Amino acid sequence: MADRVLYSGVGCITDLIVKEGLINLDIADVKSVMRDMGRAMMGTGEATGEGRAKMAAEAAIANPLLDEASMGGARGVLLSISGGPDMTLFEVDEAATRIREEVDADADIIVGAIFDEALAGRFRVSVVATGLQQQTARVIDLGQQRIA
Prior knowledge:
Blueprint: H1 2-18, H2 27-34, E1 39-48, H3 52-61, E2 76-83, H4 89-100, E3 108-115, E4 122-132
Parallel strand pairs: 2-3
Antiparallel strand pairs: 1-4, 2-4
Helix pairs in contact: 3-4
């Protein structure tokens, strides 16, 4: 599972740099999000049908390569979006917005989107979140409440 996620994520990032697309990136974009950022996580998701952009984004969020990490504190995000010729700019924005809701409000988010004929009818989102903090256990103070 981890190998497949890593392979897919790296492939999507590479495609954003080398393939012609809707929103292309260059190596400087990748460096700005990844250089000296510490812990990172990677996730990928794919969906079809109605609402596929949001579903693919949520699958990418729920599919982290590092299970103990949370995207919530990410300081940098590289978002790779791929779809067939039927992919719309509205769908790209919908997926990016869903990922944006998940990370720090001040995070540096870089989005790229490419068309891939092999993905006709499908929508794929890969996310690399960097600058993550080690997740700590949440402590809940129950005070004097009685638990039955």
